[in-house]
Amino acid sequence: MTALAVAWQILVAVALTPVLVGVMRQVRARLEGRVGAGVGQPWRDVRKLLAKEPLAAEGAGPLMSAVPVILVISSLVSVALVPLLGIATLAWVPDDLFVVVSVLLVGTVALALLGLESGTAFGGMGSSRHMMIAALVEPTVLVAVYALSVPVGTTALSSILQARMSDPTTVISPVSLLALVALSIVVLAETGRLPVDNPATHLELTMVHEAMILESSGRDLGWLELGSWLRLTALLGLVVNLALPWGVAADLGVGATVIATLAFSVKLLIAGSMIAAAEVFLAKVRLFRVPELLAGSFVLAFLSVTASYLLV
Amino acid sequence: MTLTDVGLLSQPVLAGLAFIAALAVNDSRRSAIAGTLNALLGLATAATGVGALLGEPGSLTFATGIPGIAHLGQLALAPDRLGGIFLVVVGVVGALSAWFGVGYAHGATATRAAWAAYPIFLWGMSIVPAAGDAVTFLLGWELMALGSTVLLHSEHATRPQVRSAVLWYAAMTHLSFVLLLAGFAVLIASANGTTWEALAASPPTGVSASLAFVLLAGGFATKAGLVPVHVWLPRAHPEAPSHVSAAMSAAMVKLGIYGLLLVTLRLLPDGPRWWAIGLLVLGGVSAVYGILEASVTSDLKRLLAFSTTENLGLMVTGLAVAMMLRSTGQRAVADVALVAVVLLVISHAAFKTVLFLGAGSILHATGERDLDRLGGLARRMPRTAFATSIGALAAAALPISSGFVAEWVLLQSLVHGDTRGPTADRVIAIALPITVAVVALTAGLALLTFVKVVGIAFLARGRSPEATNAHENPASMTVPMWVGAGLVLGLGLVPGWVAMVAAAAVGASGIEPAGLAGVALPSVNALLDPVSLVLMSLAVAVPIAVITVRAARKAPRRTVDLPWGCGGVRVDPTMQYTATSYAEPLVRIFDDALRPTRDLDVTHTVESDYLVREVAYRQRMVDQVERGLYEPVIRLLWRIGDQARRLQDGSVHRYLGFSFAALVVVLLVVTW
């Protein structure tokens, strides 16, 4: 029964993710005075790319086709683990936040290796920057996890969420707010959004994510796109559920699941639109200013932990 | 006679046979025969450890027959469970390294002296955790130092750096020995005997307890390669033959951790708070500094040496947290931290063996250990590449490797040290979040470091003719690596029983097997079952695989001469990112801590100053601890030496004067 719920969650996420990206692009386009390609364009892109042949350079290794699949699997597993719709979890694969972070890191590392495998200067450059950001994000992520786990006494996401559902006032406690802000900055950095990376850039010298996947094409590129978007759904979904724990299904009933699916879609799309709207007014910061941004978010996460110990 | 006794007795026999074989067998078969005997010695050590872990506290006492000196009259070997863990680690690592050495050792690394020193080194390492008293422990410690120094010296004729490495190593290892000798002397002074039981029964108190702790911790930290006494590691590991580096890094430095566990758990269990804080600072600084240096280093073996400092730092951090939590009565969480320390020990032993053997395999095939000159080896040496990548997976603490499990247990213990409510402890409330951040930063930089190692060495295209023409090594070298890689994955997939054994070794409770082969920590509400995680990933992978295979049938991959490459021709391999350029952003960010020296020479064309003909860029990383702490001391010693030279100027008159003065002094003393 729980396995069914998890499968439903994965299906919803896969169906919703291109819509989320489409909405974000459309919001941005409208705010910038463009017509935009329509909400369904990412869906059409992925379908088209998955049907196309990938081109490989002479002597390219099997990694070029393995990495995209690994990235999608890592994203799907993290989507399955994070409580997006309900708090029921599989007995032997608990939604431990440390495990979720590590599963996402597998995708991060696979992408970085893809960048190096391409054997061009751009691939290496993107890979190097990507790993630098990943390395510096890590302390914030784990300390924020720590802060969220202290009041509940466990790092299991469903327990953290359940505590918030049963007592919504904890959401606006200083501990929770600081941790959420820190986590949001991390999500922006991890998913390659402004101000850390520009998802729409094709100017080589500023690219991070795009530089790594520059040599991929066809089916490989399709998986890479879908995999990175799914990471956005998992992480953004986690943050919106932690910030607004309403509508999350407390049991496995059909009614609760339908309500949870609707509530989650609305929350996610609104959060995505807000990010897209904010991105219109933001410029990408210089690469060597990114550590300062991350250090700032680390300080917030750290304050959150000490507050959880000393303010109670 | 128990398994432990048989193992303990067979070790000196096998060591002796290996020693004789090394001296007696001729050049063509020496590596094969001596290597095999050493591998057997390693297996005997591991068997002894298994016996000790099964709860057979074997006990062998040798009467040395030295009359008059009470402590030297008897030497006892009596491994307990904790010693058993380290015996297994030493034995398995020693066996794999010796096996690899059969194919790897040649020329200067396969001489009589080198193969004769190996059993001494290995036997010394297996005496240390088996020792039942301080004197036997120190004897084993010295045998280990002797054997490893001779081995480190192997290639001194071809590379001048080896001599300086040997000097550093000998000096630091003796610093460690002297500190230990003094520390044990303080303990023995207040006890009745030298056995661990006697020492634990009447420990010193007050200032002398702290003195003993500081001396012993300093001695063990030097062997464990913690900052600031790590300086021998990045010199000795690169210069030693690779199979010896593997044994040194994966087994020998661990004995420093064994010593710290022995001191903090058994000999001086109830120390004041500042002992734990001191160890925490030592461990945290080592972890971050080690991995930071590793991430910006391009020499593969030097990088692995710094990564050893990092991992040992993490172990000491775990130990310090356990001590701290114990002192506030949170025994259950402290037990989890102790189990994490043992898991880190086992995991690091497994993956560092694989990585050093992999580095040796690359060195053997290409003659290079500079990552900047490697590349594309996954196609030339697929077996080495695959095993090394698994080792790197664990070094980066990614699932489903042993490193991930160990780091997960460590993090679980860190975030569950509860200090809320009336028992609020401000020191812990500050120390634990900082420790989590330190562990996290370490994990993040380790990711970057090992992506760099795998990506630059094995992927893309070769950056030098040596790399493009490399050939895979024979099975005698790849199979030991595969066995090690199998251990890394095995420990990562079925951590349940390993964690149980680790818990038994440190006397921890509250560790349970869970799921298919996972581990549960009921005291902190956590469960990890890697097999289930893998099964779930496979279930998710099925639809992806189906879609990919069907799409691949319709539109197969096409190889083209000119892929994207930004529309240009596929550029020269030297235009790829190198290890140095990969770490450049980090060097910039941590510029203040690393202080690299950079030289940039721009040569202009004769015709115009606006046109650049050539750019030469050199970057050199100097260990700042060495520059700040050791160089002044070394300069002082040189100055004293120079002054002392004045005493001896070759003048016979002066020497006669010295003799006369000495005579006068003696007469004065005698007639006083």
From TrEMBL, chain B:
Biological process, per Gene Ontology: ATP synthesis coupled electron transport
Record keywords: Cell membrane, Membrane, Oxidoreductase, Transmembrane, Transmembrane helix
Range of residues in the leader sequence: none
Cell compartment(s), UniProt: Cell membrane; Membrane
Annotated transmembrane regions: 6-25, 32-54, 82-102, 114-131, 137-154, 166-191, 211-233, 245-268, 274-292, 304-325, 337-363, 384-410, 430-460, 481-511, 531-549, 655-671
Pfam families: Proton_antipo_M
Cellular component, GO, one term: plasma membrane
InterPro entries: ComplexI-like_HydComp, NADH_UbQ_OxRdtase, ND/Mrp_TM
Domain of life per record: Bacteria
Occurrences of domain NADH:quinone oxidoreductase/Mrp antiporter transmembrane (ranges): 131-416
Record membrane topology: Multi-pass membrane protein
A GO molecular function held by the record: oxidoreductase activity
Key word Transmembrane present: yes
Name of the protein this chain belongs to: Hydrogenase 4 subunit B
Organism the protein comes from: Candidatus Phosphoribacter hodrii
Taxonomy of the source species: Bacteria, Bacillati, Actinomycetota, Actinomycetes, Micrococcales
